[in-house]
Amino acid sequence: MFETKKSISQRLSSVFVGAAKIILTATVFLHSAYFALGSPNSKWVKTDFAKFRIISGVEDIGKKTKIPLGLEFYLLDGWKIYWRNPGDAGFPPSFVETTSDNLKEIEWRWPAPMRFTLDGLQSFGYGGHVVIPLTAHIKSNKQPFNLKATLNALACREICVPLEGILSLKLPKGTGTLSNFSTVLKNYEKLIPTTSSWPGFALKSSHLKGKTLTLDINSSTKLIEPDVFFETTSDISFGKPRVKLSSDQKKAELKVLVKFPDGSIPAEFPAILTFVDNGRFIELNEIIRPSIVSKNKNAQFLENGSIPMTILLIAFLGGVILNFMPCVLPVLMIKLLDISRAVDQDRELVRLGFLSSAIGIITSFFVLAVIAILLKNLGFFVTWGMQFQQPVFITISCILVLAFSASLLGWFKFKAPDKLMNYLSKPTPTRHSEAIWPKMSRHFSTGVFATILATPCSAPLVGTALTFALGGADQEIMIIFLLMGLGLALPYLSVSAFPGALTIMPKPGTWMRKLEIFLAILLCFTALWLLKILSEQISLDLLLLVIGLIGLAALAMFMSKIFQPHLLLIISAILAFCAVIASNGPNFLPEQNRSLVAGALSTTRSSNLSWKNFDEEQISKFVNAGNTVIVDISADWCITCKVNEQLFISNGLIADALKSGEIIGMKGDWTSPNEKIANYLISFNRYGIPFTVIYGPRARTGIVLPELLSAAAIKDAVDAASSNK
Predict the structure, then answer these.
(1) What local confidence, expressed as pLDDT, does residue 615 receive?
(2) Separation between Cα atoms, residue 126 and residue 115, nearest integer Å
(3) Which positions ≥6 away from 256 have C-beta within 8 Å?
(4) CB neighbour list of residue 16: distance below 8 Å, 6 or more residues apart
(5) Is it true that domain 608-721 has CATH number 3.40.30.10?
(6) Average pLDDT by stretches of 10, the chain with 725 residues
(7) Cα–Cα distance list, 665 to 426, 512, 605, 677, 684 (Å)
(8) Does the first or last residue of the chain, that is N or C, have fewer Cβ atoms within 10 Å of its Cβ?
(9) Nearest-CA neighbor of 285 among 244, 239, 225, 233?
(10) CB contact at 8 A, 698 and 723
């Protein structure tokens, strides 16, 4: 019985072995026959850092005349290949030669790219594993499709190395059977941007002002880090967009610096715009046009769309808000004192006094607009408050502030030359004609003074208006500046229109003298602040000389009360002397002698915090390493900057994050002119400070914070930019 069972087992074993041999032989035969007919992929072409091949979505043609193919790459970490628009350097993959009896053309279909930097150049492409879908348009489905193509591509990391190889693909007629590669091809085809590939996306507007292109986009879902890639038919190049997200992250403003090959801006040009954001993408065709400004001097700018009504309203309201900024507070208090003095005065004189102050403000803004237009047309970078970068202006402003202080103390009264006053008073037919113009000159100077002190302040809405104005045409600068002046002058115009409101003011009394002394002291502190700014711009020896000259001017003012000399002549001479010396200040003594007095005069600084000097090239390196970076551009003359510094930067979330190392801080000092900072502001299309930006792994283009910081805005930006959120 045992031998019988063993014999049966041996027979069964022999049968199984024989069957296995038959199956193996058949498999080898079929496999050989399959490859003799064709294969849905070519052989890999391998290098030390990459490999590539052609794959097919079908095993045979069937009834198709469009064959789904793909160019498949595997790249080692750090290596990249290029998109159809490579960016600043490189070239995309292509077939330099194709051989086939049954091929009309090959259509390349490109997935959405990513942005990467090589040697400081912006490039667009892919890394890791990627499949570029292709469509082979064949002549006939009645015959096989045999393709032999020579690939030419470029792979880059620290260096760039060409990728070259011959790829062969054979597809029989067959029935159109799907291959194992059909799924991966469909997955990559889903990554190809189309006009409908991002539901809920809308390009609301695009306009070119100067060399800055602004794109306003909306999305039905939250935006994370939108980016845009451009393709045009010319040599126009586009910078990396600066992105500003709305509070709900469903709207974004993308500002792109555009470089034209010959420097001239065309009337219009077509462009393909590919928007990407967190796995979403869309491709749009757009005609880019500069902002339209009528050449007809009599045309209405508002009618042709040059200045939107919202911008006009923003400019006016920004001027109104300037009245409530700490810069202008001393002037408002002086006018409050004037109102109290005017309780018992003739209403006509009161009306003319406040009207004169308003005219002084509007005239000053007109002069600022003219200066801005001239400087811009001469090729200078014009910003709000830029005059405070000049030692001459600061020196003159300091003496003017002290002059107002001396006037409040009763040392002298502002008075224009007698000949001018006689000329102005003659044609005045009122019963107060002999006294009106001397008094009005003081009110006019008050308006000028208010404008001067307003310029280092950046109030809400002011930055928006200035960005539109200084980035636009000359007419736009003039209109917006005048509207801002009108807004600043609104309180004075209101009192001039309704002088009866003075009845609610308290009666004159001894309190007025106390207020005058208080205001004089306040203005003296303003003068010290100006001296502190000056100390950052000129040498110590020169600063001491200027202080001595200012002291001489103060002595002249005081002595004029006793001896009544020709005060204006003395002050003018001292002013001229100070201006001449201060204008040569930066080169007067070596750099190391500067800013010694600044330390003694300076307010509380964030010296205990770890801030790096501004270096735009380092930002991307920090972000690529996974860090969150805050860039703060400020100046000693910027009052709003100081408010932000004390409330939100030296204290609170930013200070804690800097101390713990969670955020890298980068400080840019614009107290004096700085070309790198100016170019940085231009890239964001900004024309004033403070300017604060948060960068991070999820916000590589930066999130711009408002001029007046808030804890909520800072937290939202840090959360949106950080990689751990």
Answers:
(1) 87
(2) 9
(3) 212, 213, 214, 215, 228, 230, 238, 239, 240, 241, 242
(4) none
(5) yes
(6) 50 54 49 54 94 96 93 95 92 92 93 87 93 95 93 92 94 92 94 89 85 89 93 85 91 91 77 93 85 37 52 80 64 60 63 82 86 73 64 70 69 50 41 52 74 62 62 76 86 77 59 69 73 69 68 63 51 54 44 38 47 85 86 81 78 79 87 80 74 85 80 84 66
(7) 63, 47, 14, 16, 19
(8) N
(9) 233
(10) yes
What b-and-e string marks burial along 17-44, b requiring 16 or more CB atoms within 10 Å of the CB? eeeeeeeeeeeeeeeeeeeeebbbbbee
Residue 345 CB coordination number (10 Å): 14
pLDDT digits (tens, 9 = 90+) for 43-61: 999 999 999 999 999 999 9
Q: With 0-12 CB in 10 A as exposed, 13-18 as middle and 19+ as buried, what is 529?
A: buried
Q: What is the pTM of this model?
A: 0.46
Angular region, 132: left φ>0, alpha ψ -120 to 50, beta rest: beta
Residue 163, φ and ψ in degrees, nearest 5 = -110, 120
User: Using CA atoms, how far apart are residues 460 and 318, in angstroms rounded to an integer?
Assistant: 6
For the chain, percent of residues with pLDDT exceeding 70: 64
Angle 382-387-391 from CA coordinates, rounded to 5°? 135
**How far apart (Å, rounded) are the C-alpha atoms in residues 340 and 352?**
16
Phi first, then psi: give them for residue 398, nearest 5 degrees. Answer: -60, -45
Select from 364, 356, 491, 362 the least CA-distant residue to 437.
356
CA-CA-CA-CA torsion sign (497, 499, 500, 504):
positive
Residue closest to 305 by CA, chosen among 297, 293, 288: 293
The whole-angstrom separation of Cα 702 and Cα 690 is 15
Q: What would you report as the CA-atom Rg of the chain, rounded to the nearest whole angstrom?
A: 37
Q: How far apart are CA 27 and CA 23, in angstroms?
A: 6
Q: Under a CB-based contact definition with an 8 Å cutoff, are residues 260 and 685 in contact?
A: no
Tell me the C-alpha to C-alpha distance, in Å, between residue 64 and each of 36, 105, 139, 555, 679: 21, 15, 10, 98, 55
Judge whether 45-189 and 201-288 match in fold. yes
pLDDT of residue 572: 52
The per-residue pLDDT for range 348-380, each reduced to its tens digit, is: 777 777 788 888 888 888 888 888 788 777 656
Contact call for residues 121 and 86 (beta carbons, < 8 A):
no
Please provide residue 423's backbone torsions phi and psi, each rounded to the nearest 5 degrees.
Answer: -65, -40
Q: Report how far residue 591's alpha carbon sits from residue 593's, in angstroms, rounded to the nearest whole number.
A: 5
State both tokens at 415: 């008075």
- Give the CATH fold of the 201-288 domain: Immunoglobulin-like (2.60.40)
Question: Looking at the domain that runs over 45-189, which CATH code has it been given?
Answer: 2.60.40
Given phi > 0 = left and psi -120 to 50 = alpha, else beta, which region is 97?
beta
AA identity, residue 403: A
The token duo for 305 is: 């769309």
Tell me the C-alpha to C-alpha distance, in Å, between residue 148 and each of 39, 54, 166, 477. Answer: 13, 10, 7, 62
Domain extents in the chain: 45-189, 201-288, 309-598, 608-721
pLDDT digits (tens, 9 = 90+) for 540-588: 666 676 677 666 666 665 665 554 545 555 555 555 555 555 444 444 4
